[in-house]
Amino acid sequence: MNVPFGIAALAAVMTVVRNEHGASKRPLDLVGFFLSGAALTSLLYGTEIASHMEANIKVALGFVALGVVLGWFAWRHMQRTEHPLLDFSNLKIPTYSVTVITGSLTRIGIDSVPYLMPLMFQIGFGLTAFQSGLLLLATALGNLGMKAFTTRILQRFGFRRVAVNNAAIAGCLIIACGLLTPGTPLPMTLAVIFCYGLSRSMQFSTLATLAYADISDARKSSASTLWSVAQQMTIGMGIAFGALALRIAAYVRGESIDAGAHFTLGDFQWAFALAGVVTLISVLGYRGLARDAGSNIGGGVRPGAARR
Question: Where, by residue number, does the polypeptide cross the bilayer (predicted)?
Fold first, then answer.
């Protein structure tokens, strides 16, 4: 399914998006490339290890720690070089920094759900992988269903209000996912999962749009690079956070934090609660946005208002 969608998206980009070029070419920051590449490889490999139930969590944390150290050296280098691979000066722009930093925290909480939910359905509910996948279709439907309303919601309420309130809704829905039990009526289970998909789509679309609201044409290339790196990294970190939260819940109950732990429905409930709390904490960051943030790209402008 991903291949035909990918081909369709590629064709749409080549047809609709303008092929813009920068004013000048910059030399490749080789030192920054290798340092950041090694840091991201270590981080993502560590998160990949952590996502496997039979993995040794200490080994995973070791790779993550190594990635953090290498990332610090990469950051120090890029602060000093004239043409850094990743330009962190863009983080001085409030709308961009909030979507990258606070948005990363939100994505970690939200992206832990696709890891935790199928496991909860199979281990906690006793469903098959096929049955679990059918239930998760409600998330996909929510993601797709929200796309038709995203622009109108942002025009009506503005980016700040949507980011604040929807992050709070997403956090509560994540916690609600953990409160589901095998005895929960199927329509209610599907409703919670569907609403999570709606909220997830709304928040991610809001962040992706607001990120470039105040970015000049000259900075779009460097801003896009840092945004893409942060986005991809937090997907892996969300999985790792979900796995770690699950293991911590089992450890508090008396299980080993290493490989071989047996998880109960209660462990998943606590893991969902932790993911929900992380998402709720991100609300504080969005409250720092200006009330008119993103108004220059239509946020808070009702349809038709710009034409009058």
Answer: 28-45, 57-75, 119-141, 162-182, 188-213, 225-248, 268-286
